[in-house]
């Protein structure tokens, strides 16, 4: 039952540093709005992870088939990320004065429930996260010999992942005093562009999976010939 827990702990730690839209937005939220804001954003993202884990745990094989046979899911997720990133970028470009006002204000109003929803949606629309949890469950099944062992493995991964993210939020908060309005402005724009890039990659993966694979197969013989 306790087989593979060291692997689970290590995997959870590494997962916290997986670069993606949630990673950058969590850091940006923690730096600009503080620990509590970052915590609520993180709780929303974790809630989406728990839903994915539940779905994957009870229907792993069916979901694997859907992700392989229905690239429209990837297209939808990519389109949502691109739309979100674009809207965020446009709003940021128009809000430098607001950023400066909030930075120098004594108190900054934070809509914590909306940050929870933001973290949830940003994680939930990324179907790559679902595929990742499916892979994790397959890995857990290979290392453990019972259903209870798989559940304990997943709980360890999520627990270590969440704890590591709390440390990241705390460290990011310490940077707030060094963040000028212009740095915050550039950080927000960078996060928006990063989200758009991940959305484009997801979109391409859904629209052109066969074309990409064919291109790689065509280029491989040429590369080998050049080395000779």
Would you kindly provide a written description of the structure presented here, covering whatever features stand out?
The chain is mainly α. It has one domain (5-227). The chain is 84% helix and 0% strand. The protein is built from 11 helices and no strands. The protein has helices at residues 5-15, 21-33, 35-58, 60-69, 72-93, 96-104, 112-124, 127-143, 147-173, 181-207, 209-227. The longest helix is centred in the last third of the chain and has 27 residues, at 147-173.
Task: Describe the structure concisely.
This protein is mainly alpha-helical.
Class of secondary structure makeup: mainly alpha
Per DSSP E runs of 2 or more residues, the count of β-strands stands at: 0
Mean pLDDT metric = 76
Sequence of secondary-structure elements: HHHHHHHHHHH
Q: Evaluate the radius of gyration.
A: 20 Å
Sheet of most strands: none
Estimated helix fraction: over 70%
Beginning-to-end CA distance, first to last residue: 51 Å
Proportion of beta-strand residues: under 5%
The oligomeric state of the chains shown is: single chain
Low-confidence stretches: 219-228
Q: Count of DSSP helices? A: 11
Q: Which of globular, elongated, flat, extended, rod-shaped describes the shape?
A: globular
Number of domains: 1
Distinctive features:
mainly alpha, single chain, globular, 11 helices, disordered C terminus, 228 residues
